[in-house]
Design brief:
The chain has helices at about 1-20, 50-60, 150-165; strands at about 65, 70-75, 85-90, 90-100, 115, 120-125, 130-135, 140-145. The radius of gyration is 23 Å and the shape is globular. By secondary structure, the chain is an alpha+beta fold. It has an 8-stranded antiparallel beta sheet. It has a domain at about 50-165: Protein Transport Mog1p, Chain A, CATH 3.40.1000. This is DUF3515 domain-containing protein. It comes from Lentzea alba.
């Protein structure tokens, strides 16, 4: 009986030691929705075909910083919404940009705007993410960013927009 218990303990120690030595190979568990083509719902984007959106989509970076990581572009599942780009990987929820959106109803003369690289953003908080809308260019651009992504996506998109799309006055009424 003692031999059986001792053998079981030795076996458990051996398996634990083997696990420590071999490790997991840095493999991450795939989380549904974080790999493969990203399915997005089409939403109203009346100006998605505008010259501003076409130009912006062509010039967007292939990667976006998120904390210490760089998020690659994600393939979008068909049918993909027009003027939409996403970034993300197996370890990160996607960052999604949509161009040509309607003027946000939340935008008013008293809205608090955040200026990043001379681009004005309106924050629309959500659960687990925020959607930021550029409100001072020829097209409304929405960037949905997971709460844990940091400020890198906003900074990179701001720089691209600042260098590409002319600044316009903010329209606080329809």
């Amino acid at each position: 009986m003692l031999a059986a218990v001792g053998l079981a303990v030795l076996l458990a120690i051996g398996v634990a030691a083997l696990g420590l030595v071999l490790g997991t190979g840095n493999q991450t568990e795939d989380v549904p929705g974080r790999t493969g083509p990203l399915a997005l719902v089409s939403i109203d984007a009346p100006d998605s075909g505008s010259p501003a959106c076409v130009s912006l989509i062509e010039k967007l970076p292939v990667g976006l910083p998120s904390g210490k990581d760089m998020l690659p572009r994600r393939e979008l599942a068909a049918p993909a919404p027009p003027a939409t780009v996403a970034w993300g990987d197996a370890k990160h929820d996607p960052v999604v940009l949509r161009c040509g959106m309607p003027r946000p109803s939340e935008l008013s003369a008293t809205s608090q705007l955040r200026v990043i690289s001379d681009v004005q953003w309106l924050q629309l908080p959500g659960s687990g993410s925020s959607t930021w809308v550029i409100v001072d260019r020829g097209a409304y651009v929405a960037l949905t960013v997971p709460d844990d992504a940091g400020t890198g996506p906003l900074q990179d998109i701001s720089t691209t927009v600042r260098d590409l799309l002319p600044k316009q006055p903010v329209k606080t009424s329809s």
